[in-house]
Design goal:
It is built from 12 helices and 15 strands. By secondary structure, the protein is of the alpha/beta class. Helix 4 packs across helix 12. The longest helix has 20 residues, at 103-122. The N and C termini lie close together (7 Å). Bound molecules: nicotinamide-adenine-dinucleotide. Residues 71, 76, 82-83, 107, 111, 133-139, 158-161, 164, 198-201, 205, 220-221, 223, 295-297 line the site of nicotinamide-adenine-dinucleotide. Nicotinamide-adenine-dinucleotide binds at residues 71, 76, 82-83, 107, 111, 133-139, 158-161, 164, 198-201, 205, 220-221, 223, 295-297.
């Protein structure tokens, strides 16, 4: 008889704190870059004009995770989340299903943990302004996790929807920080020491002309070959470009595909996050200047976060067990 643990989004919020998740995500990325995980490219399909991904991975020490995730930008108007997902976790030896968990919160947490890892390694060590480009669901997690590794003096907010900026400003105040709503991307970026792009844009919002080094850029949006969140100028000025997966970014984001194709960016110099953590980048990387972390999301993050959540939930008797 197979028993499966159901874990809700709010339970995941309590279990997967930055203190436990960032270290586990570092471990998973290291294993991924060493080739120690089983991670086929995700299957992407378009349904009713919206992006769907089926993401599967085996990360030793965590388990086999499979996530079905979609991105429905029009859900903003429906009062529904832009990203919805469900994650299932399996035992790698017996193949038995172990857990089913809410996937939107898990996605936001694991994405923020990877970004925070890049902040830990690459952001300027001195306090400074943070710029948030796209103030939706992900941005809250991105900021909260990044603040573990970067001291913000204020948080500038740029979003094309005024109501999103205003709601985010309240969130920032709740964190005890000063929010500043800006009316242009340049207004947010100029003088910022950390820029976090978490938008649904198709056109660049991280503009090289406004960047003033030292600044670290985290960019998690633009997940199709024809979309850009970062302009060519920013790519050209960057001292280092770190990505979650060289293969995935070359399949999925215009931010890397287009400058590599046009010869602006040399693929062999791009470092993976797992290589950065292991000190094995193709070209040595240190903070300072302009640095970029670009991610599209990799299934190892889901398997790792799900495996960790399952272990913690079992230990703390969190979740509801059902017999299949
Ligand atoms: N890399 C990853 O692993 C990963 C994981 C999850 C989500 N994402 C991506 O993160 C992005 C944000 O997701 P979300 O769940 O927060 O969506 P969301 O809809 O909650 O927030 C997106 C925000 O971006 C704003 N926006 C759109 N165009 C803009 C522009 N040109 N300038 C400024 N703001 C703009 C929207 O108004 C909205 O407030 C999506 O592109 C999603 O695909 C990436």
């Amino acid at each position: 008889m197979v028993k499966v643990l159901l874990i809700s989004g709010s339970e995941l919020e309590d279990l997967l704190t930055p203190e436990v998740l960032v270290g586990a995500i570092a471990d998973a990325f290291k294993k991924f870059s060493e080739g120690a995980t089983v991670t086929p490219s995700r299957t992407v399909m378009w349904v009713e004009g919206n992006w769907w991904g089926i993401m599967q991975s085996y990360v030793p020490g965590y388990g086999v995770g499979v996530k079905v995730v979609n991105v429905v930008p029009a859900n903003v108007e429906r009062g529904l989340p832009t990203i919805q997902a469900l994650v299932t976790l399996y035992d790698p030896v017996t193949g038995s299903p172990l857990a089913v968990m809410e996937g939107s919160v898990l996605t936001a947490l694991r994405t923020a943990a990877a970004s925070a890892l890049s902040v830990k390694y690459l952001a300027p060590s001195e306090a400074g302004p943070v710029a948030i480009m796209g103030a939706g669901y992900q941005a809250r997690y991105q900021l909260r996790f990044a603040l573990h590794y970067f001291e913000a003096t204020e948080v500038r907010i740029f979003d094309i929807r005024r109501e999103a900026s205003e709601a985010f400003a309240k969130y920032v105040e709740g964190l005890g920080l000063k929010p500043v709503i800006t009316s242009s991307p340049e207004g947010a970026i100029r003088g910022a020491r950390l820029v976090i792009e978490a938008s649904t844009t198709k056109e660049p919002v991280v503009l090289g002309g406004a960047l003033e080094p030292p600044v670290h850029i985290v960019s998690i949006g633009a997940h199709t070959p024809d979309s850009r969140a970062i302009d060519d100028d920013a790519i050209l000025k960057a001292k280092a470009v770190v990505v979650d997966s060289r293969k995935a970014v070359m399949e999925e984001t215009g931010d890397i595909i287009q400058p590599v194709k046009s010869g602006l960016l040399n693929l062999s110099e791009i470092c993976e996050l797992g290589e950065l953590v292991a000190g094995k980048c193709p070209k040595p990387i240190r903070g300072g200047g302009i640095t970029i972390y670009k991610s599209v999301g990799v299934a190892i993050q889901d398997a790792c976060a799900a495996g960790l959540a399952y272990k913690l939930a079992k230990g703390r008797r969190v979740g509801r067990e059902i017999e299949l």
